[in-house]
């Protein structure tokens, strides 16, 4: 093969989209809302220890709904077997063929709606649909950051129990929690496996103040930088972020700040 042809093949191959994984989903219930499917999932969970909630948009469907999946089978035959087992308990169970969009929650087998969402009180006035749905941020190295939106049942909580857990998932599906409670996690910066992002920690007047948290390639905590946002890596162990100060006039001022991380 000539060098020119080889180069063309390599370039063409580099831009090809990842091949979709084909699954057959054994679906026990569906609902248009995350709150509705969370309740149905709570009722059905005892029937399958592997049950989880998907969004059909992860299968490429233009009309997105939520579905509680008892089993994500790799063949139609395996799905039919799961269907038969579940039909003894659930009359409306069915199988959906799904060409999974790469690097989605379903591709990483992460539930789109956390089980705790079923416990959100019906009278909670500040909960919106987006507070109930988890999201994913694929990383260039093949891993992904998952923002698990969940409910913490705490009395007199100013956020009515709204929480966001930051989890890193590797290509084998292994999950590691980085932050249990990170309000509005910002953009993720990655450098040689290390990860940094910001979380809202305080409010000063009309302004939200952030802390930057940084983690090593194996998940160890490297640093938390107070009152800083929008981290980016500079060299191997230096983080640059925008330091936040609020003056007497109530105005927010942002200045670049460099932090060298200690050796671990």
Short précis:
The protein is mainly β. The chain is 14% helix and 41% strand. The strands form 4 sheets. It has a 4-stranded antiparallel β-sheet. A 4-stranded antiparallel β-sheet has the order 5-6-7-8, with no helix packed on it.
SS-based class: mainly beta
Mean pLDDT: 91
End-to-end CA span: 48 Å
Uncertain spans: 1-17
User: Using only CA atoms, what is the Rg?
Assistant: 22 Å
The spatial strand order of the largest sheet comes to 2-3-1-4
Give an overview of the whole structure:
A hairpin with a 3-residue loop joins strand 13 and strand 14. The strands form four sheets. This protein has a four-stranded antiparallel beta sheet. The radius of gyration is 22 Å and the shape is globular. With 264 residues, the protein is mainly beta. Helices cover 14% and strands 41% of the residues.
Summary keywords:
single chain; 264 residues; mainly beta; four-stranded antiparallel beta sheet; disordered N terminus
């Amino acid at each position: 093969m000539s060098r020119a042809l080889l180069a063309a093949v390599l370039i063409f191959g580099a831009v090809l989209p990842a091949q979709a994984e084909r699954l057959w989903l054994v679906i026990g219930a569906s609902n248009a809302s995350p709150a509705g499917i969370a309740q149905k999932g709570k009722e059905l969970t005892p029937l399958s220890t592997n049950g989880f909630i998907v969004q059909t948009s992860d299968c490429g469907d233009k009309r997105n709904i939520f579905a509680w999946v008892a089993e994500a089978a790799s063949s139609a035959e395996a799905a039919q077997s799961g269907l038969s087992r579940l039909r003894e308990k659930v009359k409306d169970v069915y199988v959906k063929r799904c060409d999974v969009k790469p690097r989605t929650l379903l591709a990483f087998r992460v539930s789109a709606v956390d089980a705790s969402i079923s416990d959100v009180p019906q009278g909670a006035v500040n909960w919106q649909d987006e507070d109930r749905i988890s999201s994913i941020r694929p990383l260039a190295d093949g891993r992904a950051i998952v923002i698990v939106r969940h409910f913490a049942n705490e009395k007199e909580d100013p956020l009515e129990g709204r929480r966001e857990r930051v989890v890193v998932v590797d290509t084998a599906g292994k999950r590691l929690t980085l932050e249990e409670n990170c309000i509005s996690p910002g953009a993720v910066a990655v450098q040689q496996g290390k990860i940094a992002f910001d979380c809202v920690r305080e409010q000063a007047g009309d302004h939200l103040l952030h802390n930057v948290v940084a983690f090593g390639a194996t998940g160890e905590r490297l640093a938390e930088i107070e009152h800083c946002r929008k981290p980016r890596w500079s060299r191997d162990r230096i983080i640059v972020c925008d330091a936040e100060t609020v003056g007497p006039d109530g105005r927010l001022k942002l200045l670049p700040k460099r932090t060298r991380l200690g050796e671990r």
